Amino acid sequence: MSTIPPCPKCGSEYSYEDGAMFVCPECAHEWPQVAATSEAESERVIKDSNGTVLQDGDTVTVIKDLKLKGSSLVVKVGTKVKNIRLVDGDHDIDCKIDGIGAMSLKSEFVRKV
């Protein structure tokens, strides 16, 4: 009997093999079998403008006026953003800013508080 790892997203023990992928029936998360052991090791490190490592839930400060595309709103220098969430992609921080709402930021324009 093979040992199938639990789902990395929800922790369900009912995951199963489907070709070259593992699948979780509870949350529908799919992940490759090859990278299942090395996924935690190859996790991307996201750093702020000063080189400090950022983590989910951190509070950061915006270091540059950021104009919002398609709007006349501007995120001003010194705006404090609480409880950030790190994501993959070009804009690697998801957050909510008071008075503006949900948006994505690049880590190069923020500084950890």
UniProtKB/TrEMBL annotation:
Location of the Protein YjdM N-terminal domain: 3-32
SUPFAM superfamilies named among the record's database cross-references:
Prokaryotic SH3-related domain (SSF82057), Zinc beta-ribbon (SSF57783)
* Highest taxon above the source species: Bacteria
Q: Which residues form the Protein YjdM C-terminal domain?
A: 46-113
One Pfam assignment: Zn_Ribbon_YjdM
Gene3D superfamilies linked: 2.20.25.10, SH3 Domains (2.30.30.40)
Q: Where are the transmembrane segments?
A: none
Q: Which family does the similarity line name? A: Belongs to the YjdM family.
Q: What's the protein here called?
A: Zinc ribbon domain-containing protein YjdM
Please name the taxonomic classification of the source. Bacteria, Pseudomonadati, Pseudomonadota, Gammaproteobacteria, Thiotrichales
